[in-house]
């Protein structure tokens, strides 16, 4: 999977969580730059050993795209909660 694939998945995961995040933290949501948020999440994922291991296993089994989508969605949900 490429960095662009990862960014696309992170962007989609953030979009799916954004309405709830914005409702809970409207002032923070108003000042967050989307590009910086995506880049920060990607960097956190790149540093996450569980992500690395999960993607290596998924690549070996040939289902990396679906595993990435599922893993990233859960990771972003947890990661957004840690911002506050």
Give the topology, please.
Blueprint: H1 3-24, H2 26-31, H3 34-46, H4 49-61, H5 64-82
Helix pairs in contact: 1-3, 1-5, 4-5
Describe this structure in words.
The chain has 84 residues and is mainly α. The chain has one domain (3-82). It has 5 helices and no strands. It has helices spanning 3-24, 26-31, 34-46, 49-61, 64-82. It is elongated, with a radius of gyration of 13 Å. The termini are far apart. The model has no long low-confidence stretch (mean pLDDT 93).
Could you give a quick summary of the protein structure above?
By secondary structure, the protein is mainly α.
Largest beta sheet, briefly? none
Order of helices and strands: HHHHH
What number is the mean pLDDT? 93
Task: Kindly provide the radius of gyration, computed on alpha-carbon positions and rounded to a whole number of angstroms.
Answer: 13 Å
Morphology call: elongated
Contiguous low-pLDDT stretches (5 residues minimum) are none
Number of DSSP-assigned strands: 0
Q: What class would the helix/strand composition place it in?
A: mainly alpha
Helical amount: over 70%
Percentage beta strand: under 5%
Count of domain modules: 1
The separation of the N and C termini measures 30 Å
Number of helices: 5
The oligomeric state is: single chain
């Amino acid at each position: 999977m490429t960095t662009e694939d990862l960014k696309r998945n992170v962007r989609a995961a953030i979009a799916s969580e954004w309405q709830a995040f914005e409702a809970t933290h409207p002032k923070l949501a108003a000042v967050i730059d989307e590009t910086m948020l995506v880049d920060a999440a990607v960097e956190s994922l790149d540093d996450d050993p569980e992500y690395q291991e999960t993607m290596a296993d998924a690549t070996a089994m040939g289902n990396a795209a679906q595993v990435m989508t599922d893993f990233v969605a859960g990771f972003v949900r947890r990661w957004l909660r840690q911002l506050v």
